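Re: the multi-chain job from yesterday

Posting the exact lines I submitted so nobody has to dig through the queue logs.
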Amino acid sequence: MAFVEFRDVRKVYHMGEVEVAAVDGMNFAIEQGEFVVVVGPSGAGKTTVLNILGGIDTATSGQVFLDDEEISAYNEQQLTQYRRHDIGFVFQFYNLVQNLTALENVELASQICSDPLDPAEALAAVGLAERMDNFPGQLSGGEQQRVAIARALAKNPKLLLCDEPTGALDYQTGKAILKLLQNSSKENGRTVVLITHNSAFCAMADRVIRVREGRASSIEINEAPVSAESIEW
Amino acid sequence: MRSIRDSLGRFLAIAAIVALGCGFYGGLRMTGPDMRIAADRFYDGTHLYDIRLLSTLGYSDSQIGEVKAVEGVAAVMPSKSTDVMGQINEEQYAMRISTLPIKALNESTCEDGCNVESSDASYLNRLILAKGRWPQRSGECVISADRVAGVPFEMGDKLTVLYASQDLDGVLSTREFTIVGTVHSSNFVSSVTMGATSLGSGSIQQFAYVSEDNFDADCPYTELFIEVEGASELFSGSDEYQAHVQVVADRFEGMADALALSRLNDIKAEAQEELDDENAKYEEEKADALEKLDDAKQELDDASTKLDDAQNKIDSGQSDIDSGWAQLNSGWSQYYTQRNDALAKLASGKAELEANQKKLDEAARELEAGRAGYEKAKENKPGVEEQLSQARDGLAQAEAGLPAVQDGIAQVEEGIAGLEAQIALLPEGDPTRKALEQELEGLRMKLAGLQNQESELNKTITELTAAIPQLEAALTQIEEGIEQFEAGEAELAAGKKQLEAGWKEYYAQEANAYAQLSAAENQLYASEQQLIDSQQQIRDSQAEVNDGREELEEGKQEYEKERKKALDELADAAQLIADAQKDIDDLEAPDIYVLDRTKNYGVESQVADSERIDNIARVFPFIFFLVAALVALTTMTRMVDEDRVVIGTYKALGYSKARITGRYLIYAGLASTVGAIVGLALLAQVLPFTISKAYAIIYNIPDYPLPMPFDWKLGLLSGGLGVGITLLATFGAAVATLREQPAQLMLPRAPKAGKRILLERIAPLWKRVSFSWKVTFRNLFRYKKRMFMTVVGIAGCTALLLTGWGLHDSIWDIIDKQFGPVVNYNVITKLDEDVSESQIVSVETYMRDKGETEDITRVQSSNMQVGSSSHNPIGVEVVVPEKVNEFADLLTMKERIGQVPIVFDDHSVVLTEKLAKKLGLSVGDTLLLYDQDDIGNAVGSGYELTLTGIMENYIGSRAYIGRDSYQQATGDSCSFTTLYGRCNEGVDERLTFTEGLHEIEGVRTVTYNDETIDSYRTMLTSVDMIVVVLVVSAAALAFIVLYNLTNINITERRREIASLKVLGFTKREVYAYIFREIILLSILGALFGLVLGTFLESFVCVTAEVDYVMFGRDIHTTSYVISFVMTLVFTAFVMLSMRKKLTTVDMVESLKSVD
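And the result, structure tokens for all chains:
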């Protein structure tokens, strides 16, 4: 069995009397250590997939597996533990705690999991060794996103999930962030799932999952992913 | 509308805090007026008097008529009343017994417990029957149904009148009443103290209404109760009412002098009439007495005359006797002469005779001398003759006998010769020879005898032949002597005979003479006896006369005495009459007091109590308004913040600021108006109702029928304040945001930058703090407005709690701090003022023995008044201890602050703390001590004393004065007839103890502190209700503030919470992360609240205090702890209820975008 597997996953929202299926029979599998890009237009259900995979949302039906565990069968408590130990999240809007310094934000995450990385090293790894004691408000968007990545990586998760991490960033900074993510996958063998509407990112992925109307319309294995620096959009 | 629905929590928060603020303010503000409204309704319903006219000499019908005629008087009810000490079931009360029209009483009806209907318009102070029935005959009474403490009683129990300060004779004719019912009286609305009196502890504790025939018919009406026309339509106690009543009161004041004069004249006329009667009686009796005296005098004079007459008679009798004696004496001398003559004659006769006698006697004697010889001769003659014959006979005989004897001798001599022959024949030793020898012997002896006889006979013949001639001569001599003597004898006998005849004659003469003399003597004796008898008679008469004189003298003395006595008595009587006349002439007009309801203790203290609540209400709810403002400010700021994009859009679209602001103002206005209406509707009912209910323990004013009256003015004021504050806060919040440019507004507001806080500078400390705590600390200082709101709100909550519990402490401290720390005695025994030393000692002994104590001390306890230069006199109990050292064991005097002991000696003057404060006195100041009259007014200009100490004291107003100071100031001596004792007795034995004490003569009252404590406990329970109100409102405040804070916190930090959740924080970690901040703020607020509460409590204490008690000034540590803990419990409760809201924060939604 693959590292990550989606089997006929459906997510149905009730908008009044209308049922809307955000995810409608999603099937895919991801191998350990892969850098995966999930791409699709807005509303295709890719964020929902990510949320279900990250344990912050649950599937209406179908099965989700991670490392031989059936996530979809978890109760809320198990999901919390799952998020705590197995998942790292990076969001478009960073979601840092404004009242904690960069280091503290990382520590916030690392203190609660079983096998964390050293927060300072994690920050140094994302190139913020000098800005450790700054508050998020004192950092630029890219720096904040790096803190967010450092926070996610410091937990030493099985899976790093990134939802449009460059969405609020300028081109150069976005590239740097992508590079950071790619490196963390390549160098540490971490499984990274990145969601974007930007097809340009597909070039740097080991596996590209195209999503359309709640389904995986195609899954491609990219034998020769390029470096993040070389992609353009 | 949509915005309301969308943010119901926010809307409710504003509404609730405004409801609480307005409701609390309005409700508290309306409580006082509502209590007064209920009182007014009661007073109107029971026709409580508007004016009470009191006269020191009472009223007669004519004055009552005058009073009735006064303009504005609707009704007049005359009443007789007197203050007495009464006893019901072993408990003594100072009580007022008054009359009411019994007929009206029995015919009155009361349907609703407040309005009493009666056809008798002049039936005032109408009673509401609580239990039992109305009195119907003399000797029945109804008493208060509302007394708080005391021994329970039942219908049919007896009320015994013990004594009064005045003489009850001529006032109260019944002394024992049967309790037939209990009543509520508007005249005595305070069931704790019903007014002042000179008896007992100085306040009326019970009342009794009886029919008029229980009072003496001669006892005048002592007071007139007056209903003023139109006064009942006005609000009792209001300025309009006072002014209205004052008009009539002024009329009475104006006519008081005339009224007093008229009463005086009535009394004078009545008294004069009586005196005139007395005077006439006196004159009559005087004449009577004088006449009697004259009669007696006459009698004495008569007696005197009679005595004089008798004396005269005696005197003449005496002279008769005296002449009689002279005659008698001459008689006697004559008699003696005669007697001497006669006796001389007799004597000579007698002497002759005696001489003859003598001769004769001589002769007789001679004869007698011969007589012995004669007699002897006579006697010897026969003897001699005999001897002669015998001698002749003897001679013959002897001569005859001699031959025979001579024959006999011859014969015997033959026999001897024969035998001698024979013997000679016979051998010697032969037996027959022997017998013959013997026989021979016999014959030899016989021969000797016969020979003897023969010699004898021869001798006799010789003798006799010589004697016979001698004997014949002697015989002849004897016969001659005899003859001679017998002749002398005959001669003597003849002489004797002659002498006897002479004697006989003499004796006859003598007898004759004596007879004559004796007759004469007898006659003289008879005369003498007669004289003696007469003399005796005279003496007796004299004695009689003397006795008579003595008697007369006594009679005279007695007469004088009686006369003096009678005259004295008459003089006394005359003096009495004169005095009485003077008294009448000097009679002063009575004092007439015009007293309105403000002089009624119950009415006035009820007003004072309700005004106390007004005072609290003015200050107290500021916390709520402050919090309301803060809640509105933070809530609306948050709302505006949330809407910034919309505002930006509107602004960009060209909407005016006013238009945009209006939206929020409308929202806030709506919320606060709803809150104000709901709050007022609820709390303006609940608060007045609850607090009135609490005061119902003290005041027997019937509950106002729900709904409680609503004061629109106050309602609008309070609502306006609430809404206004909210709008102001909203406006402030909106304006701040509106200043920003639309472009900026369109952007999400930059999250407030994190900041380092002071704490971080202390690196060693900061390092130890976990991230969540770091966030917490930073957050606290990040949102200052919110922090301020929370701290103030929670502080308010804690302050309310502390005020509540502190008030509770203060109230119960009154008892705990008074009894033990200050007052160490537990029994007060009051004795009659004129009790003897031995009686006091026996009471002391009893207390000592039965109470097992040595701690007994005597004091003088009197009701007086104390004033100062700046304050009118106040009624107090003045205590003068006999021995200060004993007293110190039973009463601890110390200053409250610092607990410094106060030295109390015979020169000290110490006031209780509250009294001194009220009078504005401090140590060293001069105070004025006044006597007090029966009505409770200060008398005279007061005695000056210097205050030497102010002591901690919680119940009652007392002045402790050293005996020297007291006596110097007043000039009165003390009578130490009150005993304080600390007795060791259980509650069960108290009754026996009391009974034992009452059996000792002179014991008036026995009071236990426990009873006082009980009655205070009951009374103070009412104030505990306020504690409940405070606790409930504190809880409400805490909920609103914390709910609001949490609500804002959660909504504002949804993303943060969602982030944490995504990071894998467990529920509990998330709660802790968010709530830690609230807990910290709560603790901070609670700490502030403790400080604030300390001040607030002391304000409420001072405001809520009643006159005769001082609340404890300390809040107990436990109260601080309880208030603190309760605040945290409220916090915990809010957090528990907010957990769900945290749980429902949706990670997916929150993370999607920046809101």
